[in-house]
Amino acid sequence: MNLRKVSIIGDGAVGSSIAFALALGHAVNEIVIVDLNRDKAEGDALDMGDGMSLVSVPKEIRAGGYEDIAGSHVVIVAAGAAQKPGETRLDLLKKNASIVSSVAKDMKPFLDEGTIVLVVSNPVDVLTYVVFKELDIDPRRVFGSGTVLDTSRLKVALGEELDIDPRSIHSFVVGEHGDSEVALFSSSFVGGKPLEEAISLKGKSRDDLDSIALKVKNAAYEIIARKGATHYAVAIAVARIVSSILNDENTVLTVSSYVESAYEGKLKDVYISFPSVVNGAGIKETFFPSLSLEEEEAVVSSGRTLLASIDGLGIR
Fold this sequence. Notes:
The protein is α/β, with parallel strands linked by helices and 316 residues long. 41% of the residues lie in helices and 20% in strands. It has ten helices and 16 strands. It is globular and about 55 Å long.
């Protein structure tokens, strides 16, 4: 297996942005783009390939079919319909579940034993479960982009509020990548200081934090209303996940991972985002933080929302 090969299935706005982000980075040396519109995939591959003498790590970029994903360390599933203005991620479910299920069937014969499958299509938590069921492989090798982007949005918003580099803020968004996501303020820290204490020094209150969480939750809707789609930041998030895999970094990221049982069985048999250790083998470990009573109720409710959607597909 070529440990630096990544294949992307789906060359829409998100898939092509992911390819571009990977093309600019250091982690990958081969990118294969698969799409029903072969001309579009070939055009994007040619377009990005023209710049390879200008990047720090040149790589091969090409279009291909499912057979060309053989030898990939990571296969990224970005196929499906895009979210429209006024539409929730879960509204996309009926349209995208059949698309992603078909993609999983088509790619299964070409997956190597250690290939990791990263699902980005929305609603990502439910569709990651669909892919996992279709592939029937170790769940540690199948996970979704989850709330990695939501967590970044939260850190950026908190950084603006505190006038601190967002990379120095330790906070997580967990649960569904969507309307029921939960910002874990009770376990958030800035320079070792609890977030609520740090924010109070700026003359702010918990109400201000709740307003930030709501802004983060609605960020995608605002962007979609203005430009029709979100794709740049999620591409950056996916490139970060891929880097953690290919460089075997053991990085803690809030990907959507399989939860067999957590919080005394209140969460069972669901893909949902929690801080997880991501490395070359996939998900090494998932952490379940200590939560306030309010946070636990919200996280369990988020999980139930996802389970209801999964049950509606009849695949459990």
